[in-house]
Automatic annotation (TrEMBL):
Residues 254-398 form the Acyl-CoA dehydrogenase/oxidase C-terminal domain. This is Unannotated protein. GO terms for molecular function: acyl-CoA dehydrogenase activity; flavin adenine dinucleotide binding. Keywords: FAD, Flavoprotein, Oxidoreductase. Its cofactor is FAD. Residues 126-223 form the Acyl-CoA oxidase/dehydrogenase middle domain. Belongs to the acyl-CoA dehydrogenase family. PROSITE patterns: ACYL_COA_DH_1. It holds the Pfam family Acyl-CoA_dh_N. Transmembrane segments: none annotated.
Length: 404
């Protein structure tokens, strides 16, 4: 029987160091520039593809870690470099998770590699669930998928909002209502491949933070895709819908199963931002003098740093636990996936704000990276389920009560 240990193994340490070096040497030096430009950092994604970080091989190896930690380690290190660039590099993995969560082996084999492309021809993936009137409430999606029996095609119509890589991705995984009256249980996920007529980018959002990550509307106007692009296949969908119509429980919901799998990894990104800000503030507090001594010599500053470190470490333990539970197929009985993302997101917001406070006026200006980290951190309490929704998941899990 294996002993309890929080030591990372050789393989995990190696990935952690490798991604850290990439974050330090390639990502950090250009982070402010891409934040200012508010554009997709293609040269950085190209570099990540060249070294193998943006690739199906890296992804498969990282998510295949028997202890579930490699992808979390990589996510934390990359986001330590820059969160917007991290999302530009890792945003595609949300689409990958959607395909792996609902697709058949043949669909996974066909579409997952296309979410990355090749180093010579990079492609991105996008996972399209949210809509202008349905964010937290994913059960009320308006995007419709209608089956055309004559041509064996699905026809998609609707508008998706807030989509990471929306419109610039080669592969869009779209969650749509097949039977709207069945709410979330009447939905399914579809793959819209490269250059499919009818799919276009709507407005691109101007954001507070993670500005190197592209976020836009995706408009679906009579998008026709082959029947084979329904993830999981029609037979399985028909059987599921029949079960739901009979009042039996359905085991899968296309959007929620993807988010459950990815939340701890999103939490790991938030940790990376928090750690960057904490490290910077710690160094600064030792250097900066006021009233004839380093500001860290004041408890008012030193205790802030103690709390920041403690918060980051406790959030990491929750992230690692959720990753380990997912990898070892232990069910999230108390919303452990939600706990990890909730805690890490809120810690990142608090720690980056405290870091600004420690830097004083220097924390508030763009010459220093801390204000950007604070702007970047805020999204982690909003996307992939807001903090309120995470609390709802946890509260329902621990109580068995359908809390509203
Ligand atoms: C930068 C960015 C990138 C994103 N990327 C993607 C993506 O790639 N794919 C995708 O599908 N979506 C994406 N999203 C969408 C994101 O997941 C949603 O914005 C989020 O789920 C919240 O939905 P909403 O904005 O509609 O807010 P709403 O659902 O309208 O919520 C508004 C407020 O009400 C609260 N609230 C709602 N219901 C309850 C309740 N029952 N109890 C308590 N409080 C409640 C919320 O917590 C929130 O504070 C992205 C969003 C952003 C900003």
């Amino acid at each position: 029987m294996a002993e309890f240990s929080l030591d990372l193994n050789e393989d995990q340490l190696q990935i952690q160091q490798w991604v850290h070096d990439f974050a330090q040497n390639v990502v950090r030096p250009v982070a402010a520039e891409w934040d200012e430009r508010e554009e997709t950092p293609w040269p950085v994604i190209e570099e990540a593809a060249k070294v193998g970080l943006y690739s199906i091989d890296f992804f498969a190896d990282a998510v295949g870690d028997p202890q579930g930690l490699k992808m979390a380690l990589a996510s934390e290190e990359l986001a330590w470099g820059d969160a917007g660039i991290t999302l530009a590099i890792l945003g595609s993995t949300l689409a990958v998770s959607g395909i792996m969560g609902s697709g058949t082996d043949a669909q996974i084999g066909e579409w997952v590699p296309q979410c990355f492309g090749t180093p010579d021809k990079i492609q991105l993936g996008a996972f399209c669930v949210s809509e202008p009137d349905a964010g937290s409430d994913v059960s009320s999606l308006r995007t419709r998928a209608v089956y055309d029996e004559k041509t064996d095609e699905w026809v998609l119509n609707g508008t998706k909002a807030w989509i990471t890589n929306g419109g610039i991705a080669g592969v869009h995984v779209v969650v749509a209502a097949v039977e709207p009256e069945l709410k979330a249980r009447g939905q399914a996920a579809f793959v819209v491949g490269p250059n499919t007529p009818g799919l276009s980018q709507g407005q691109k959002y101007k954001k507070m933070g993670i500005r190197a990550s592209h976020t836009a509307e995706v408009v679906l106007d009579d998008v026709r895709i082959p029947g084979s692009h329904l993830l999981g296949g029609k037979e399985k969908l028909d059987a599921r819908l029949a079960r739901v119509r009979e009042g039996k429980r359905s085991t899968t919901q296309a959007a929620m199963s993807t988010f459950e799998a990815t939340r701890p990894l999103v939490g790991a990104q938030a940790l990376g931002i928090a750690r960057a800000a904490y490290e910077y503030a710690l160094d600064y507090a030792k250097e900066r003098k006021a009233f004839g001594r380093a500001i860290i010599e004041n408890q008012g500053i030193a205790f802030k740093l103690a709390d920041m470190k403690m918060d980051i470490d406790s959030a990491r333990l929750l992230v690692w636990r959720a990753c380990w539970m997912a990898a070892t197929k232990k069910p999230f009985v108390s919303g452990e996936g939600s706990m990890s993302k909730l805690k890490a997101g809120e810690v990142a917001v608090r720690v980056t704000e405290e870091a600004i406070q420690i830097l004083g006026g220097y924390g508030y200006v763009r010459e220093y990276p801390v204000e950007q980290w604070h702007r970047d951190s805020k999204i982690y309490t909003i996307f992939e389920g807001t903090s309120e929704i995470q609390r709802l998941v946890i509260a329902r899990s621990i109580s068995g009560v359908h809390i509203q």
